Amino acid sequence: MKVDRALWAKKKEAMFRRLLEDIHIGYLDEDISDLLLEIFKREDAFTISSCSGRIIFVDAQMPWMRKTSTVIFKKHKPITSEEFLEFLNKPILSRLWVIVTGPILHISTATLKEARTLISASRVAGLKHSGVISFRKDGIVLELRSGIGLTYVVKAGDRIFVDPTTDLVSICNEVLMKGKDRLRRLKEVITKLES
Amino acid sequence: MKVDRALWAKKKEAMFRRLLEDIHIGYLDEDISDLLLEIFKREDAFTISSCSGRIIFVDAQMPWMRKTSTVIFKKHKPITSEEFLEFLNKPILSRLWVIVTGPILHISTATLKEARTLISASRVAGLKHSGVISFRKDGIVLELRSGIGLTYVVKAGDRIFVDPTTDLVSICNEVLMKGKDRLRRLKEVITKLES
């Protein structure tokens, strides 16, 4: 199983155009766009997709059952107590989950050597659940993830599980920001790598 | 980067002896030992470590900060409301977290082909965060994980965040059992694979 270098390069070019577009329309915040550009600069790597970390509110029986879930709120920045209370008090169909996720990146590399370099860099930066998730003709695909995150059920039907007067919201925000820290560390580590 | 087959085989033998010991002393429950034996049967794979999924109570500022965390309770089976209340009411130093994790397996393979086969099988079984986490002379190391899990802060200092009269405990147990289901599916998928 060898990566088809020409196919890979064509994909990198297309993804680079899309990245520049995303930056141009303001779709990406600076924190992550700097990191993505740093990865694109490397000869044997490009990013496929990324999330800098977010807080979502999901109406679902179980939050990983995507097909039967409804995301009712999504934010890549800290949430306010008002936002939390607003969604806590809205009627739902099943259960209301608040999920804070750390950063996730999907990267394609042209070589196994580059895949190993980036996995090691991710581990140093605290993204410890990073690895190769598929080996394809058009690239070796990596998923970089940290162990940072919260998954809360806050309501079932109209029965509220949590006390909204507590530090819950600030803990959610604290977790979100810890995730963003890892992203900054990843950028530092990758910038210092030999190409 | 090639796996040293002799070194790998030696490690497989040692890990197999340890597995038999663990089964003999009753350290492993049947659900997971059947799966592990099935993986060992394969010519190019063996398991390094495994967890069938568990519920833990952790006293920590952030639960992934292992060095400054104290695990005060751990169970691989469903918990009771009495257990939950007992630990909810014990004094803690920082914050009390209840964490339900799905199954995690670490596997070593002798070839990239076998790594790819097992990653595909894991994905089919619903362990979607599975990948190669390192390429070493003594084996290609895979981590198989699902997206199943909960991470709750239930108390900070002596301030309780959750209403213990709700379905919280049964939802924790439901999540735990969903994780164990994935393990059963993984065993089925692997048993049906061509070697």
- Spatial strand sequence of the major β-sheet of chain A: 3-2-4-8-9
Strand content of chain A: 25-35%
Specify Rg of chain A, calculated over alpha carbons.
19 Å
Structural class of the helices, strands and pairings of chain A?
A: alpha+beta
Helix content of chain A: 40-55%
CATH class of chain A: Alpha Beta
Q: Fill in the CATH topology of chain A.
A: SSo0622-like fold
Q: How would you portray this structure in words?
A:
Two copies of one chain form a homodimer. With about 200 residues, chain A is of the alpha+beta class. Chain A has a single domain (about 5-190), classed as tRNA wybutosine-synthesizing-like (SSo0622-like fold), CATH 3.30.1960.10. Chain A has five helices and nine strands, in the order ααβββαββαββββα. The first copy, chain A, has helices at about 5-25, 30-40, 80-90, 110-125, 170-190, and strands at about 45-50, 55-60, 70-75, 95-100, 105-110, 130-135, 140-145, 150-155, 160. In chain A, α1 runs antiparallel to α2 (about 30-40) and α4 (about 110-125) packs across α5. The model of chain A has no long low-confidence stretch (mean pLDDT about 95). The interface between A and B is large, with 39 and 39 residues.
What topology emerges from the helices and strands here?
Two copies of one chain form a homodimer.
Chain A: H1 5-24, H2 30-41, E1 45-51, E2 54-59, E3 70-75, H3 81-88, E4 95-101, E5 104-109, H4 112-124, E6 131-136, E7 139-145, E8 149-156, E9 159-160, H5 168-192
Antiparallel strand pairs in A: 1-5, 2-3, 2-4, 4-8, 5-7, 6-7, 8-9
Helix pairs in contact in A: 1-2, 2-5, 4-5
